[in-house]
Amino acid sequence: MKKKMPSAPEPINLLQDVHSRMINLPIYFRERVCEECSWSIPTFYRKMRTAIRPGSLNSEKITPSLSNAEKEKIIAVLDEVFEGFWEYCGKYRKKPAKD
Length: 99
Fold this sequence. Notes:
Layout: H1 14-37, H2 41-48, E1 51-52, E2 61-62, H3 68-89
Antiparallel strand pairs: 1-2
Helix pairs in contact: 1-3
C-alpha cells in the first residue's frame, strides 16, 4: 500500500497550501526512498554526500555508488512524489469550460 503525503487541515489560501506542500516534498521523498531502499536516514545522506579521498594530493572526490536497482527505485519514488503533488494541485487548476 502506497503512503500518501499527510493531509493538512483546510487551507487558508492557495499560496499557503501549495507552499507548505512544497516544503514537505523533500522530507516525503527522503522517507519514501529510505523505505523502498531499506536505508536509514543517515545512510540516505551518506549516499548523497561526495567525499574527498583520504590521502589524495589533487583532492580527488569520491561518490558512494548506487546500484542499478537503487537508481530505479529512486526514480520511481521521484515520479510517485511529483505525480502526487501534481494531482493534489489539480484542485487549483482551471477546469476547461463545457459547451
